[in-house]
Amino acid sequence: MSRDNVSTADHRPTHTVEDYLMTMHVMERDYGEIVAARLAEMLGVAPATVAMTFKRMERDNWITGKGRKAVHLTDTGREAAHSVTRRHMLTEWLLLKILKVDLPLIHDEAHGIEHAISPHLEERMRDILGDPHVCPHGNPLPGYEDEVSGWIPLTELALDEKVVIRRVHEFAEENPGLLNFLIENGVLPGAEVQVLEILPFNQTLTIEVEGRRVILGFLAARYIFAERHSSG
Ligand SMILES: [Zn+2]
Ligand SMILES: [Zn+2]
User: Fold this and answer.
1) How far apart, in whole angstroms, are the C-alpha atoms of residue 163 and residue 152?
2) CA distance 43 to 22
3) How far is the CA of 45 from the centre of ligand 2 (A)?
4) What is the 95 CA–ligand 1 centroid distance (Å)?
5) Position 65 confidence tier, pLDDT thresholds 50, 70, 90
6) 216 CA to middle of ligand 2, Å?
7) Ligand nearest to the CA of residue 108, numbered in listed order
8) Pairing mode, strands 192-199 and 162-168
């Protein structure tokens, strides 16, 4: 009678599997593989829980890679991962633009809603929201990765360089402490920033954001992407 026993790849994945698939999509996109230990960390669950979910996901043909530390999405799994990622990102826009939900809340709120969005509703949302290619944090909807590939992590900037913030990576969205810090300090897509100081021995980067000095550790700065001003 358990729902899991009737779940197959012909049906929509369970909520838990959709949550896994969305994080897996980001890992595969950025690293080319999905490492179980890292996924457990990202999802805030025990490695044993991930191992059990992997078993079910393999049985249902979402992933392959039995008994290995890294797994891969099947074509069906990737399609489902792209679908839930799109629904998540469109829901973020719906919450922000239409429902006027505060920016710090939209990622978590979207997680609660994204699973219930039907294909019909997704299409309506895309039309009403003007067919966005990135989420409000600047992360690409599946298929639009090329449009963000020219944006560079803050850790690659030179001293004094002036850039425009374009993207706060999904892994930063998942970190409420970091996300709130960035929002409070205006380190968000559209903000103009200048690099004031780079201290490699300290692993910190100081930037000016609209008259305010903000110190970021390299670990956090890696997840923030900016666009260089065109020199033309
Ligand atoms: Zn999000
Ligand atoms: Zn987002």
Assistant:
1) 10
2) 10
3) 21
4) 11
5) confident
6) 20
7) 1
8) antiparallel
Nearest CA among 111, 110, 104, 96 for reference residue 44: 111
Neighbours of ion ligand 1 (CB under 5 A): 107, 173
* Integer Cα distance of 178 and 34 in angstroms: 23
Distances (CA, A) of 201 to 1, 118, 154, 197, 205: 58, 50, 17, 12, 11
Tokens 């990765």 belong to which residue? 145
Span from the CA of 110 to the centroid of ligand 2 (angstroms): 9
What residue type is 1 in one-letter code?
A: M
Measured between alpha carbons, how far is 227 from 153 in angstroms, rounded to an integer? 9
| Two tokens, residue 228 | 């260089």
Cβ contacts of 74 within 8 Å, gap of 6 or more: 9, 61, 62, 63, 64
Q: Could you tell me if 135 and 89 are in contact, meaning their C-beta atoms sit under 8 angstroms apart? A: yes
Binned at pLDDT 50, 70 and 90, residue 217 comes out as very high
**Amino acid occupying residue 48:** A
CA of 174 to the centre of ligand 1 (A): 7
Q: How far is the CA of 134 from the centre of ligand 1 (A)?
A: 11
Mean pLDDT of 15-38: 93
Q: How far lies 65's CA from each of 33, 76, 83, 104, 220, in Å?
A: 11, 15, 22, 36, 31
Residue 165 near residue 137, CB atoms below 8 Å: no
